Amino acid sequence: MTEEIELPEAVDRAIDECIRENVLRDFLMEHRAEAKAMSIFEYDQERPMQQEREAGLRKGKSSCCTGRCRRIWPEG
Predict the structure, then answer these.
(1) Comparing C-alpha atoms, which of 29, 2, 4, 1 is closest to residue 15?
(2) Measuring CA to CA, which residue among 36, 38, 2 is closest to residue 16?
(3) Residue-level pLDDT at 74
(4) CB atoms within 10 A of CB 59
(5) Is the pLDDT of residue 64 over 90?
(6) Cα separation, 76 vs 70, whole angstroms
(7) Distance from C-alpha of 13 to C-alpha of 39, rounded to nearest angstrom
(8) What is the pLDDT of residue 52?
(9) CA dist 42 to 23, 60, 61, 62, Å?
(10) How far is it, in rounded angstroms, from Cα 40 to Cα 7?
(11) CB 26 within 8 A of CB 36
């Protein structure tokens, strides 16, 4: 079973694991707070950007889909 944890805790765990495994160890030890903040910010930004792209595709399909285009992009 997969444990569900909040994003900040997950990022902390990932940073701890990287340090233990000697992945960017020196950098993460010196810039831990900055790396954590950026990881959370980047993660949070991707979701709205993806939703915006999907909405744009739906809008484009609905305004374009007549006749020939409807065969290319069937509804549903």
Answers:
(1) 29
(2) 36
(3) 62
(4) 10
(5) no
(6) 11
(7) 12
(8) 87
(9) 20, 27, 29, 31
(10) 7
(11) no
Q: Torsions phi, psi of 58, nearest 5?
A: -60, -45
Two tokens, residue 34: 């900055």
Question: pLDDT (tens digit, 9 = 90+) per residue, 7-40?
Answer: 899 999 999 999 999 999 999 999 999 999 998 8
Token readout for 49 is 């950007």
Rounded to whole angstroms, what are the CA distances from 50 to 28, 32, 39, 45, 72? 28, 27, 17, 9, 22
pLDDT exceeds cutoff 70 at 73? no
Whether the pTM exceeds 0.70: the reply is no
